[in-house]
Structures are given as C-alpha cells and as structure tokens.
Amino acid sequence: MPYEVQTAVFEGPFDLLLHLIMREQVDLYEVSLSTIVDAYLAELDRMQAAEGQLDLDVATEFLLIAATLIELKARRLLPGRDDLELDEEFSLWEERDLLVARLLQCKTFKDAARVLAHLGDEAGRSFPRLAGPEEHFLAVTPDLLAGVTPAQLKAAFLKAVAPKPVPKVDIRHLHMVKANVSDAVAELIDELPRIGRISFRRLTESLVERLEVVVRFLALLELFKQGLVDLEQALAFGDIDVVWLGYERAEADLAMAGIDAYDG
Amino acid sequence: MVTVNERTEMHRALEAILLVADEPVTPNLLAQLLEIPAVRVEELCTELADSYEVAGHGFVLARVGGGYRFQTAPDLAPYVERFVLEGQSARLSAAAMETLAIVAYKQPLSRAQVAAIRGVNVDGVMRTLQQRGYIEEVARDPGPGQAVLFGTTRQFLEKLGLDSLDDLPSLGDFVPGADMVEAMEMGLRLTVDDEPATAPEAGGDDAPPSA
Amino acid sequence: MVTVNERTEMHRALEAILLVADEPVTPNLLAQLLEIPAVRVEELCTELADSYEVAGHGFVLARVGGGYRFQTAPDLAPYVERFVLEGQSARLSAAAMETLAIVAYKQPLSRAQVAAIRGVNVDGVMRTLQQRGYIEEVARDPGPGQAVLFGTTRQFLEKLGLDSLDDLPSLGDFVPGADMVEAMEMGLRLTVDDEPATAPEAGGDDAPPSA
Predict the structure, then answer these.
(1) How many CB pairs under 8 A join A and B?
(2) Which of A118, A41, A61 is nearest to B122 (CA)?
(3) Which ipTM value was assigned to this complex?
C-alpha cells in the first residue's frame, strides 16, 4: 500500500494515531493496522534521527500504543480462537475502548484549542488602555512599595530575565523536556517536611509516567546521600518508607544546593 | 444609548475611572466608588458601551475578565499596531494551545493529569504557559502526593476577550459526533466477521463507512 | 465638533492610538502613523476635543507637553482619587515591578538596556518609578551616546527594609542566559547607535506605551 509517513512532527502517540485514523477516515477498510504500526515505527526512527538518540520517555509512550495496536491486530488475524479466555477477550475490548476514548478526548481538545486560538486572535486586535492615572494623582496614590518584599523583587527579576518565547506562527514542535532530578529534589524538600513519614508507594501514587517515579527515586537517593532523609525497608521487596529527618526547609535547600543537576 | 442630555454624573465618573484603570475594573469596585448598586453600574456601563458603538468611536467599552475596560476597536488594529511597536505577544504554539485548552476546561488539575490526557510530557509547555501568565497554581491536591493543581488566570480571560470561564465555548460542542466515534472504532476494529482474513483488498461488502 | 456622520476613519484611528498611549503623542508622530499632514492631525484632534466637550464626556482630549492625550475631566477628580486610593492603582503593576527589579539588580544601566531585557518599551514605567522616587539618574554612559544610567534610590532601600544593595536577596547560582547577554549587548548597541532602526523617533516622548 503506498503510504508516506508524514513529515509533520507529532505531539505524541495519540496525536499520531489520530492523524492516521482521521486521514484514512474515508477509506478505513483499506487501512490495515499494520500500516499504522509501521507509521509508529517510522515516527520513532524519525525521532531518533532528529534527536540523535531515542528519548526513552517519548519512545515508551509510542511503543505502548503501538503494542496495543499490534495486539488488536493479532486478535483480528486469529479469529475464533476458542481458547481465548473471556477475561482476555474483555480486556482486549477494554483496551480498544480506552484507546478510542483517549483519541476522542485528544480530538475534542484539539478542536477546542483551535477555537480558543481564534478567540485569542480576535481579542488580540483590541488593545487595552494601560496608561494609568495622570501624574497629578500620584500625590494621593499610596506608597506602591508597601508590602513588597525583597523576595518578591527577586522573583520579579528572575521572571523578567526568563527566556522569552520565540514568536512563531503555528509551528508544531515536540516537547521533550525530561523529568529532572533537581526539580524532583526541590519538590520533595517542599513536601516531605510537612508529611514526615510516607511510603515510597504513596509518595509516587499520583505520578502517571514511570520515568517520573524513577526520577523521584533518584531524588530520594540524593536526599539520603545528603542525610536529609532516612530510607527504611522492613522486608525484602516490601514497601520503602521515607522518613524526613527534621531539617528546616532552608537547611535542606542549602545542603542540596551543590548537587549536580542531571537529567533522569 | 446615552444622548448628551442623558449623560449623568455617574456616566461621566465611570468614564473617568475607567480611563485611568490599567486592568478591568469589577462592577463591585465601581459600585463601591460611586456608592450605587452594582446592578446599576452594569446598566450604566452597558449604556456607555452602546453609545460608543452607535457613535462609532475608535474605542469600545468591553466586558472582559470580570470587569470593564476601555480598549481599541478591533478594526483599527492596523493603526494601533503601527504605534505599539512591540505589539502582539507571540502566538502560542499548537501544542501550548491544546495544553491550555485542557487546563481551561478541566481545571483544577495537576501536571500529571494534563500529561495523561496529552499522552506526552507537558512540563515544558506548562512552564511556558505559567511564565506567560495564562495559567497559575491554584491549589494542592489533598492526596498524599500533594500535587500542584493548575488553573487559568484572569489574564487568560483577558487575552481571549472572555468575561468569565462560563463564556468559554461549551466543550460539548467539540466532542466528536457519532460518525467520528464510529470511524475510530472501525479503524481499530477487533472483529473480522465482515472481512476475509487473508485478503488485503476489501470486498464489495466492505464498503467504506459513510464518514 | 464631529457628529456621528462626520466621524471619519482618521478620527477613529486617532482615538484608538491615543487610547493606548501612556504619554502625550506629538502631532508629528500621529501624522506619520496616519500618513496625513501634521496640520491635518491638529485639526482632527481639535474636532475630537470639541466633540468630547460638547457631549460632556468624563474624559477630555488635552494638548500637553507638545502632544495630545486623553485625561480625566477635572471636575471628576474626587472619583478618580477614590479609585487611585482604594483601587488597583494602589500597588505596583507587574510590569513596573519587573522593571524596578532589573534596575535594582543590574544598576547602573540605561533605559535602552532595561527595554532590551524586558523586550518592551519601558519609558512610561521608568518615568513612574522615577516620579515615585524609587529610581534616579546616577551617571552617564561614558560611551558616545552618553546615555543616562539609572539606579535605585535610598528611599527604595528604606521601603524594602534593606540596609544596602548588598542585602538584596542573592540570585544564587543564577547565570544570565544567552538571550539576556544578548539583550544587554543590544541595549548597549542601541545606546551607541542612538536610534533603533525601527523606532518611530529617537526621542522618548513618542515611544509606544509599555505593555
């Protein structure tokens, strides 16, 4: 089947899948899942070529979807397998429905985003008045620095010198910012003093991606190395308990100031 | 609209206050300053806005971000842009816009929840949106992780020319229709009842869906 | 005065430009923007000013400091003062705060350097900060342009409860990014060249408002 992999850069696995399905919408029967899987692998190749190396974080997401697709495809190629457990069958349908649901969600927000962008463009044609009061009102204006702290001033400075976004008109680009250990350390220093003691499992419950869990774990090891936390594991393969050793936030920040920032 | 004779002290006071304001002023604050009910403020502002429109001024009185403000008439953008050199803030990328849409409709939610919906890491995009003042931390998840929850800012409303989040187009309008759902399900169909397992080409029975 | 029928595109464009300006705009700059003679600009502005007066608006179009600007009608000052006291103007805007922070941390530096870092014109904001006594001229660039260099005042330190500039919170391991270094250099270059290629006029008076 003649098929050209898009040169467009895809935002993620759903984006790519959505693109493929939408594009073939008129002739779905002609599209085999293997074509879609091929497109996935091609996209991974492209990413690897573009980045010089494969980003595991992104690649995993792509592979997960590709694997699901292959499983669906395999199911189609082997019809009427009597030995297929009912549970297995259900879970396959579930996978498919989940995928469809996520695709629908993806499509919904894509369309919503387009309308919001349009609203923004329209609103952008009106400019607000920002001049403020005339100078003779300055005399009655209360002191503007009242309540302003040096810390706020510092924050304002950092905001002012933060890199500005490069103006661009609707160019899709892949965001592959990696989870970062020093960020995770900062989060933990923020959270742990309040919690005191918590199991690693609960600490990472809210994280969606495995890489984030790994990065949190590395961050904990850093904290352990600096003597800020204790790690306890009562049983082999049992839950790991994280215990904050009671340092003040500022002391912790100081202790961690020197650690190397490396990507997870 | 207000004719010259009907222009009251209150109309004039509103015009003066809004002229020196540098962000939308809420009806409540205006009511407090003028010592009249907020409902009356809204009436007066509507009258002013209508009168400007009828008179065809180069400025309009707009209701955005929960308040009133003077802004330029959209059709004069070419002149104003010439003057305001730094002009337009950079447009958001499609990726940033989609992320922003998710936050707008699903707020409050965590970075991880946005990432789960997008299927990609969103840290970079979220940071950009935060830096540019479209989103902000609004709460913390009460759960163990205490994840930061994000929501949109008033500036977001101003940038989109909306008065409040209620003015966002209904998300329901964007949910794909039944034909799209069917198309997707067909694209990912599991059963092969109506398709010969070995033939790559579709037979006559397998006419494409009417999507 | 201008009646509805006589309100032309030029009247409307003038209204729009003057609405977003944060300082008086000279007839010359307006003429340049509208591509009409300066004399004609003066006529149009007089017509607008007269029409506002006849209509009894809460704002007036005034000729001050060599240019035109919208300002509040003098008799409404009590309302404006209440707003200034109780309203949003009672605090430093985000733009002013960032500008002040840049001056505080990077002093001494020129207006052009601040503008280059912030990416927008800062003339209006700098003037406000100067009027409030938070920043002042501290030196002149020895280079060809001899640009005025600004720094923070004694009053600024007192208001923030600081003994000296050394007491400003340390920026820690903050290293200016490449873009900031470039911005600083660009600022210097602007100073040296004396006039940015794109600016309508070299003088600060006609600069676009700061966002």
Answers:
(1) 260
(2) A61
(3) 0.73
For the C4-77 domain, the top CATH level (class) is mainly alpha
Q: CA B159, CA A121: separation in Å to the nearest integer?
A: 9
d(CA A200, CA A220) in angstroms, rounded, equals 9
* Residue B57 burial (CB count, 10 A): 22
How many other CB atoms are found less than 10 A from the CB of residue B211?
Answer: 17
The answer to whether A175 and B124 have CB atoms below 8 angstroms apart is yes
The residue whose two tokens read 């985000």 is C94
Nearest-angstrom CA–CA distance, A117 and A134: 35
What is the count of residue pairs from B and C with beta carbons less than 8 Å apart? Answer: 121
Q: How far is CA A108 from the centre of its chain?
A: 19
Quickly list H helices, C21-148. Answer: 27-34, 38-55, 77-86, 94-106, 111-118, 123-131
Angle at C114 between CA C108 and CA C120, to 5 degrees: 170
How far from chain centre, in Å, is Cα C182? 23
C179 in contact with chain A, both atoms CB, cutoff 8 A? yes
Residue by residue, pLDDT tens for chain B (211 residues) are 555 556 789 999 999 999 999 889 999 999 999 999 999 999 999 999 999 999 999 999 999 999 999 999 999 999 998 887 654 556 788 889 999 999 999 999 999 999 888 877 788 889 889 888 899 999 998 877 788 999 999 989 999 999 999 999 998 888 887 777 777 776 666 554 444 444 344 333 444 444 3
Range 33-72 of A in CB contact (< 8 A) with B? 33, 36, 57-58, 61, 65, 69, 72
Cis amide linkage into residue A2, ω under 30° from 0: no
Q: Do B82 and C33 touch (CB under 8 A)?
A: yes
Strand B109-110 relative to strand B135-140: parallel, antiparallel, unpaired?
unpaired
CATH of domain C94-167: 1.10.10.10
Q: What is the pTM of this model?
A: 0.64
d(C-alpha B41, C-alpha B43), whole Å? 5
Q: Which residues contact C106 (CB under 8 A, 6 or more apart)?
A: C113, C114, C117, C184
- Work out the minimum CA distance from C6 to partner chain A, whole angstroms: 23
Chosen from A153, A159, A253, A259 to mutate, greatest number of chain C CBs within 10 A: A153
Euclidean distance between the first and final Cα of chain C, in Å?
Answer: 32
Pairing mode, strands C59-64 and C67-72: antiparallel
Phi, psi at B167, each rounded to 5°: -85, -5
Pull the structure tokens for residue C64.
């001050």
* CATH 1.10.10.10 domain range(s) in chain C: 4-77, 94-167
Helix locations, chain A, DSSP H? 13-23, 33-51, 56-77, 86-123, 150-161, 181-195, 200-203, 210-225, 249-256
CA of A115, closest CA in chain B: separation in Å?
8
| A167 within 8 A of B86, measured Cβ to Cβ | no
Contact of B28 with chain A, judged by CB distance below 8 Å, is answered with no
Cis peptide before B108 (omega within 30 of 0): yes
Q: For residue B153, what is the DSSP state?
A: -
User: Which residues 104-143 in chain A show a CB within 8 A of chain C?
Assistant: 127-135, 137-138, 140-143
Q: Do C98 and A158 make contact, defined as CB atoms within 8 angstroms?
A: no
